[in-house]
Amino acid sequence: MAEYDTLIVEHRGAVTLVTLNRPQALNALNGQILTDLLAAMAAYDADPGQRCAVITGSPKAFAAGADIKEMQAQGFAAMYGHDFFAGWDRFAATRKPVIAAVAGYALGGGCELAMMCDFILAADTAKFGQPEIKLGVTPGMGGSQRLTRAVGKAKAMEMCLTGRMIDAVEAERAGLVARIVPADDLVEEAVKTATVIAGMAPLAAIANKEMVLAAFETGLAAGVQFERRLFHGLFGTADQTEGMAAFVEKRPGVWTGS
Ligand code: CAA
């Protein structure tokens, strides 16, 4: 398996576990982490044996934001000219399921990275925030959009305008995280959840992900239409035939991803 400067990547059966590993900077997201993550996600998407990924950080920080020291001296022309942060769109475009397992700080770009994953499992130590306003800027990796869609205008606006962090309980109540687990169990619980997903029909997993994401980008009628067409399309797969036969025959399905 490939080695990365800023990540530890392990295979746990059909689950790819990616641990952000820049502890000296609380996993601040610099260009190297982006490069490494894009390579790791491309390898994950391309490997038919890998069916779900988990992204996690350290007990202290999932990621404390984009790397402020890397951005500090930049000007408008460089940021705009290089379309700084555009590479993260490729992370968000990962086709197979990705779970964020968040302990400690998920701030700025860290919160935005967690929100680019398909859902967030939070340790009871997790803290989420968009503190960019304190640096004289705004979210730049999609936070103003994904946070608002996740928690609604009032809380997103308060978080962006004040920089206030919310804890795991508030994040769960607001709909930002799927579930809270004890910090000591976070990674194992995330891998367990990922293993459940990895056991599902692979094409159906991709289709379910695509259609839930479509809810963020389309109106209701177009989204329902998109869902129905993908649903119809799955009736051209062997896994649909197998899954429904397995139900009727009262046995587990055996998936071929075809
Ligand atoms: N960028 C670069 N370095 C960072 C960093 C970041 N986002 N966050 C932490 N670090 C570094 C610190 O500079 C420090 O390095 P040194 O030891 O070399 O000084 C090291 O990580 C440890 O951090 P602290 O000493 O600050 O640790 P702490 O426990 O006292 O505080 C913290 C933790 C509250 C998370 C604090 O580090 C902090 O406020 N970090 C910045 C949070 C932030 O503003 N994030 C948004 C960044 S901008 C952004 O993300 C834009 C976007 O939309 C994508």
UniProtKB/TrEMBL annotation:
UniProt-listed PROSITE patterns: ENOYL_COA_HYDRATASE
Keyword set, alphabetical order: Lyase
Family: Belongs to the enoyl-CoA hydratase/isomerase family.
Record-linked CDD domains: crotonase-like
InterPro entries: ClpP/crotonase-like_dom_sf (IPR029045), Enoyl-CoA_hyd/isom_CS (IPR018376), Enoyl-CoA_hydra/iso (IPR001753), Enoyl-CoA_hydra_C (IPR014748)
Source species: Sphingomonas mollis
Pfam families documented for this protein: ECH_1 (PF00378)
Single Gene Ontology MF annotation: enoyl-CoA hydratase activity
EC number: 4.2.1.17
Protein name as catalogued: Enoyl-CoA hydratase
Alphabetized NCBIfam families for the sequence: PRK05862.1
